[in-house]
Amino acid sequence: MAKVKWGVLGVAKIATEKVIPAMQRGELTEIAAIASRDEARASEAAQRLGITKAYGSYEAMLADPDIAAIYNPLPNELHVPWTERALAAGKHVLCEKPIALDAGEARRLIAARDASGKLLAEAFMVRFHPQWRRAREIASSGRIGEVQAIQTMFAYRLLDGDNIRNKPPGGGGLYDIGCYAILTARYIFGAEPTRVVATFEIDPNFGTDRLASALVEFPGGRHLTFSTGTQLANCQRVLIAGAEGRIEIPIPFNAPIDRPTRIVVDSGVDLVGGGAKFEEFATCDQYTLQGDAFSRAIRDGAPLEFPIEDAIANMKVIDACFRSAREGVWAPV
User: Fold this and answer.
1) Which of 246, 214, 239 is nearest to 146 (CA)?
2) Model pLDDT, residue 302
3) Is this structure's pTM higher than 0.90?
4) What domain range includes position 190?
5) Last residue of a domain, one of 98, 123, 148
6) Cα 18–281–275 angle (5° rounding)?
């Protein structure tokens, strides 16, 4: 079965350490080229990762007729301009999250996609992991009753001022990890929120949010509450609460690739786990699953499960969080 040939824009750490090795293990995906504005860096990454072609400019790789699809892991402020250029060059594009710095910028990509006739999606790998697929299935089945609340905590500790995650305009916890809390709540509820109220703690040196918390209201009186921190101890947890039980996802976002994962489904009969049932999922890499899903859509000419319109919907909620924190009021989505 012929694999789809991919090119990668830049040598970002997430690409070289996580996404590229994972996609190389895919059944339908071949990483055929990598580009950097520094040709030596591109060549070093290509040699280390076993990639055939290395380019000293993004433009040169986009001009390669053998490359069908582009993975864009550039800094957040470069997502839209280089995605537009890749689409204009006739390439399908999988772009890292967040797709843009605001929904207005993201909407430009609809016209670019439509003009190119190519596929375009935001790279939220968690939606392809079986633990999230199963959590959504259980939540919608009625097994834990009507789901009313989701609580999410996502934190890491990063004090390096030179790291792109700590630099404006695209840095900060909401852009980097708060987007996951919003996305997965929309995924589980199967709905779009109506309003948010948020508060931020801004690092005085970096100028980015190091702690962000929000209450996000969905139709029917359902709520997401989340906190994200970039200067806290590593922590990830998701709790999905229903009228007759709950689902807990212990490692919801950076699921390990070297061991099985599991979720907990608890009837809530007591507080010591008397009603807890565990569901385990075989070892897998969600980046591999994401890459093959996109390659399959290219090969088969099928529509994407999560097109760019979904990314724009997520971006609108992020915009509302920023607006609420800035103005100190509830902000409509």
Assistant:
1) 246
2) 87
3) yes
4) 127-287+316-332
5) 123
6) 130
Q: Which of 65, 41, 37, 62 is nearest to 51 (CA)?
A: 41
**Do 208 and 171 meet the contact criterion of CB atoms below 8 Å apart?**
yes
User: How would residue 309 be classed by pLDDT, with cut points 50, 70 and 90?
Assistant: very high
Block residue for tokens 């970039």 = 230
**216 lies in a domain?**
yes
Single-letter residue type at 202: I
- Name the pairing type of β-strands 92-96 and 69-72: parallel
Give pLDDT tens digits for 190-230.
Answer: 999 999 999 999 999 999 999 999 999 999 999 999 999 99
Position 238 pLDDT exceeds 70: yes
pLDDT in tens, 96-106: 999 999 999 99
Closest Cα partner for 95 from 110, 111, 80, 107?
80
| Helix extents (H) in 90-227 | 103-116, 130-141, 173, 179-189
For residue 38, which amino acid is it? D
**What is the identity of the amino acid at 148?**
Q
Amino acid, single-letter form, for residue 231: Q
Whether 167 and 212 map to the same domain: the answer is yes
pLDDT for residue 30 is more than 80: yes
Region of residue 90 (phi > 0: left; psi between -120 and 50: alpha; otherwise: beta): left
> Residue 75's domain is classified under what CATH number?
3.40.50.720
Whether the pLDDT of residue 85 is over 90: the answer is yes
Kindly list the strands in the beta sheet with 120-123, ordered across the sheet, starting from the edge strand earlier in the chain.
53-55, 29-35, 4-9, 69-72, 92-96, 120-123
- pLDDT score of 1 more than 80: no
Q: Backbone dihedral region of 98: left (phi > 0), alpha (psi from -120 to 50 degrees) or beta? A: beta
179's tokens: 């987007």
* Nearest alpha-carbon partner for 99 in 188, 182, 16, 29: 182
Token digits for 136? 């959504």
